[in-house]
Amino acid sequence: MSMMHLTTAETISVWVVLVIALVGLGYAIFLRRQVLAQPTGTTAMMEVWDAIRTGADAYLGRQLRSILPFIAILTVALFLSVYIVPPTLEAHERFPTLTDDQLKMVIGLGRAGAFIMGALFSLIVGQVGMRMAVQANVRVAQAARKSFNGALRIAYRAGTVTGMLTDGLGLFGGTIIFIIFGVAAPDALLGFGFGGTLLALFMRVGGGIYTKAADVGADLVGKVEQDLPEDDPRNAAVIADLVGDNVGDCAGMAADIFESYEVTIVSALILGLALRSLTGNNEWLIYPLLVRGIGVLSSMFGTYIVKSEPGMSGDAMSAIFRGFLTSAAISTVLFGIVAFVYMGNVPGGWVRPFLATAAGVLLAIVIDRLTDHFTGTEGTPVLEIKRGHDTGPATTILAGLGVGMEAAVYATLVIAGAILVSVLIYQGVSDVPAEQFAYVLYGVSLTGIGMLTLTGNNVAMDSFGPIADNANGIGEMADLEPEARQIMADLDAVGNTTKAITKGIAIGSAVIAAVALFGSFLTDVSRVDAQVLAQGIRVSVPIVFVGLLIGGTVPWLFSSLAIKAVARAASQIVLEVRRQFRIPGILEGTAKPDYARPVAITTAAAQKELINLAWLAVASPIIVGLALGVEALGGFLAGVIVSGQLLAVFMSDAGGAWDNAKKIIEDEPTDPANNLGKGSERHKASVVGDTVGDPLKDTAGPALNPMIKVINLVSLLLAPIIVAYKTNNVVLIVIAAILLVTVYFAVRASKRQPEAIIDQSV
Predict the structure, then answer these.
(1) Which among 143, 212, 99 has a CA at the least distance from the CA of 602?
(2) pLDDT digits (tens, 9 = 90+) for 536-557
(3) 645, 507 Cβ separation under 8 angstroms
(4) Cα separation, 715 vs 717, whole angstroms
(5) Does a structural domain hold residue 756?
(6) 71 CB-side CA count, 13 A
(7) Which residues pair with residue 99 across a beta bridge?
(8) pTM to 2 decimals?
(9) Across-strand partners of 761?
(10) 579-612 residue pLDDT tens
(11) How many domains would you assign to the chain?
(12) CA nearest 284: which of 347, 223, 326, 240?
């Protein structure tokens, strides 16, 4: 720390931020004990719960075995990457007594170690968060038998455990690396961000395929073919469906937001370092850490006040949003105080960094409300889809497609507006174009930091969804009282909206983080060779435009492979559930289905896709960079960001709207003769819409978030290497060709039809 020339107050501030991270983790432990102290209910409820827990544990264990070899290979690659290009000036400044060889060893070990730590923390957030959700669902079901507020409080606080783990571990890891490496921290933080992002991609892809294969298969046979209720115990796929809610939404989403949290810190420190080299101010580096510390404290307060009125009914959405706004208000006030006290001496003054950070909080609120409009049960778009149910599945699907496309437009315009705000905030700080460029990009990174200030609230809102969904399933399978079932159904409907909202925020933060990383990419390249990007990335240059076009295709190929994987696995589930329904006694309820076999099918299907899709994200920027050069790689990144943003929002919001339109039909009084409620033709049309939307909103759409950032981080690591070795064109092109062949075979392997599963064990 002393090598950074920090003042005593700055040194103390950094250590205070570290303590706040530990306080956040302590708060997570406190809430966990609160939740686990709640009663678990009847023997029948515990039997269902145990089946969910066993299936989830088995899936995550197998997933971990699948990805560990890939992580080991990349750890070695990240260590060796330091030996290809010389250490940065900041590395020499931080460790002035070391020789070049010693410095490469230290930075290489730091980057590889940070990669492992990022992957480990992402894994902890996902796995511990998922297990907390599994522990909570049966307790929520039991609490719903007594009061609405009790069930809401347990579900939300259990989700907050995951949220505070995300906050605490993210802030702890980033601050520790900063304390050890000082101004050289970005060299190691690249590894930290990459580790978290890669694990999130694995958990998003695997969990998404698992959950939606089970959900689609269970719904198509159970609801459409047999007119069974959701989560009916006679349906063999029902346990796999409930397991999937946890491994997809809890484990996957928590890891997803964790890596966004990390990537925004990485980009803010890289860009802050560029400004420090211009002005000599350490404030550019310390301020993002202080903002993150404020976020942890405000999330703790805002999440704890979420509660409803006593009794057997209440408004869960209002209670959750009230907590969200409370955290936002506390954060914004504290941002202003810290900026006023600490950022007064930087060029442009304290108001600019404060406004850029506050703009991020406002962006999160706007996306929250925008997503609620397009996916909430009260919104016009969902009611339009509901009207489409009257005339069958085709009009249902068409209405949902239109909603998703419109939502993508407005969400993208909001994000464009947020970036424009950063441009306006930092306008005129410098007369030198390159310096002005750096100020604007730093403002964008602060917007990303501000947007994820409320990470604790965001993850709590997301985990609330599957916890409520699972509680509802346990209530159905354990045949609980109608009053309790209604409470759980109401919480489940709110959970669908909160999941859609947090997906919207995750997508928005992914794009903001990707834009900041794109700026970091330009900054890093110009540091190696100032002439390479002297005029920026110009789309008018044909090779850049080629890169842009190629980048735009990658999210579509990635999504195609993920959706096809769900379709293949869901087909297997459909055949398996139909087979079991033919067994005497299953439909009559006198014999118990084999729940383990659908779990085995979905687990195998999810694992098959993990490495192939991850390799597409890792290899594609390397191929473009090596074959076409660093300018084309810049165009490639721009194409990935724009295409990925539009596609992700389209899929996420269309799927969420279809899901909630179905919920409205299911809440109607059941009267098939008048085409109302469950079992009616309108209901069957809504189920078809929901099953089409499932892989869009819970598999392909959310997986694009970590995919975009994996591509950006790989490019950031690769760019200095390409610039340093750009004269060896033949060698680079040969390597690119070899990688292209591996991608081709990965895509072929992904599209291969699965073999029949003979082993019926989990």
Answers:
(1) 212
(2) 677 778 998 999 999 999 999 9
(3) yes
(4) 5
(5) no
(6) 26
(7) none
(8) 0.84
(9) none
(10) 998 888 888 878 888 888 888 888 887 777 778 8
(11) 1
(12) 347
